[in-house]
Amino acid sequence: MTSLCNRLPRYNSSMNLDDLVCYCFHVPYRKLVHYCRREKPRVASQLSDCGGAGTGCGWCIPFLKKLFEQESGRSGSKPLDQVNPQDYAAQRAEYIRAGHGTPPPSAQPPPAKEP
Ligand code: FES
Predict the structure, then answer these.
(1) Distance separating alpha carbons of residues 46 and 42, to the nearest angstrom
(2) Minimal CA–CA distance to 82: which of 14, 35, 19?
(3) Digit-coded pLDDT (tens) for 36-78
(4) Distance 106 CA to ligand 1 centre (A)
(5) Which of 21-59 are b and which e, b meaning 16 or more Cβ less than 10 Å from the residue's Cβ?
(6) Best substitution site from 24, 26, 83, 94 to test ligand 1's pocket, by max atoms within 8 Å of Cβ?
């Protein structure tokens, strides 16, 4: 079983608010932050009400949990400030290829595997 910490990439450049967090349902970071501030979800799973985030392949769930913790004041760290968007997408592709999750047909396809 993959722990949350193992799924959180550690990189230098960071996502910005327009980058996608949930590739399956095309949900950007900005939309999730605004959802949290407007709707004040009580549990992290309520972020799925924001465009279906996290209900596809499951890759983004650890990030959604960290985002929820940040926005609800339970964590001072900004979870996606340490994530490189290209590496985030590439790691999602590896996650899907490894059979950990199945994206819906409407999902953004994972990038091609590098030679
Ligand atoms: S990337 Fe969010 S469920 Fe697949």
Answers:
(1) 7
(2) 14
(3) 999 999 999 999 999 999 999 999 999 999 899 988 887 766 6
(4) 11
(5) bbbbbebbbebbbebbeeeebeebeebbebbbbbbbbbb
(6) 24
DSSP state, residue 27: E
First to last CA, the chain: 27
**Are the beta carbons of 76 and 10 closer than 8 angstroms?**
no
* Distance from the alpha carbon of residue 54 to the mean position of ligand 1, in angstroms: 5
Burial class (CB in 10 A: 0-12, 13-18, 19+), 105: exposed
pTM comes to 0.82
Which two three-digit tokens encode residue 8?
């959180």
Kindly list the distances between the CA atom of residue 49 and the CA atoms of 29, 31, 103, in Å, as whole numbers in the listed order: 14, 11, 17
